Amino acid sequence: MTKGDREPVPMLDLTAQVQSLWPELSAATERVLRSGRFIGGPEVEAFEAEVAEYLGVPHAVGLNSGTDALVIALRALGIGPGDQVITTSFSFFATAESISSVGATPVFVDVEEESFNLDPRLAPAAVTARTKAVMPVHLYGRPASMTPLLELTEELDLHLVEDCAQSFGATWQGRQTGTLGAVGAFSFFPSKNLGAYGDGGLLVTSSQEIARTARRLRNHGSEERYRNEVLGYNSRLDALQAAILRVKLPLIEEWNSRRRQVAEYYGELLRGVPGVVAPEVSAGHVFHQYTLRLPGADRDRVQSLMAGAGVATMVYYPVPQHLLPVYAGKHPALPVTERLAAEVLSLPIWPEMGREVQERVVEELARALEAAGA
Questions:
Q1: β 201-205/183-187 pair status
Q2: What is the mean pLDDT of residues 101-122?
Q3: Is 40 left (phi over 0), alpha (psi -120 to 50) or beta?
Q4: Helix (H, G, I), strand (E, B), or coil: what is residue 228?
Q5: Is 198 exposed, middle or buried (0-12, 13-18, 19+ CB in 10 A)?
Q6: Secondary structure letter of residue 351 according to DSSP
Q7: How far is CA 368 from CA 2, 340, 344, 346, in A?
Q8: Please, are residues 320 and 334 in contact by the beta-carbon 8 Å criterion?
Q9: Is 336 exposed, middle or buried (0-12, 13-18, 19+ CB in 10 A)?
Q10: For the segment 152-165, what is each residue's pLDDT rounded down to a tens digit?
Q11: Over 80: is that where the pLDDT of 5 sits?
């Protein structure tokens, strides 16, 4: 095969993972199909127990999606119209959407340049009499700076809700993300480090009352059939996805370790490429995305050139939430967030990624930067 005929490099390749797990996945799928229990039931209950044990929390509630996990977390904490929630604008829309969906108002705070996460030094100034919670996002799998945020929320008696959609298995000072605040919300979208083969989500908490409320809300606001106590949602994790997640959960530490190895090798390769700011590799970071910065470069031109060479990249996220049409003109400027949104580029990453594939990615990146005049 000539250089011009090389196989394209996708952002994520799950084929090796699926192939290696095929016997276990097939058995789990058959088990569910033969059981006739497709919504809730023993598979969901077993997964909830196993994932709670892994994370080190007493309560885990399986849900339909990570977005629902955020919405139900806020509802379970009693957050609603008139309340404010401090969060980051540099995230997927579901973060702010969940706050607005319960009738509260997102208050956006700028991020740290090096971590892309909410800057805890700026959070205190954003607190008002209406503030009820702080919602950090562990973006790209890197934990936010939790210690000062925990101190702030404890001092002011605020709730801390962790958006862990991208951080399953990540740790902050030895503790799992999602277990540090009042509630943690996870996504099992197929591309996540622990991904289902469809939508899925999880809410975790140390509070029995929050867990009980979340279980009620996920089931149309009812604990007893036909006795609906509040307006809830149809947000139940289905048994097939739970069974698949049970197969994958025991492997998450190995997969996250491999992701860090891929990130370390990217870092070695990128040291020879001018104009690139590579992310730091730390023990607690699980690299859901490998996101670098291209300050001074035409990022979109670089991305286009790499696509033409058969190497996929993604921009997470080109438009910060406070500049999206639904929020535009309602929030102050966030200079660091806005600059990073114009600089970031995520390279392909998955646990089984070979070094030769990484070398090709960086080779095409260097070539694209040179062609773009960076």
A1: antiparallel
A2: 98
A3: left
A4: strand
A5: middle
A6: T
A7: 20, 20, 15, 15
A8: yes
A9: middle
A10: 999 999 999 999 99
A11: no
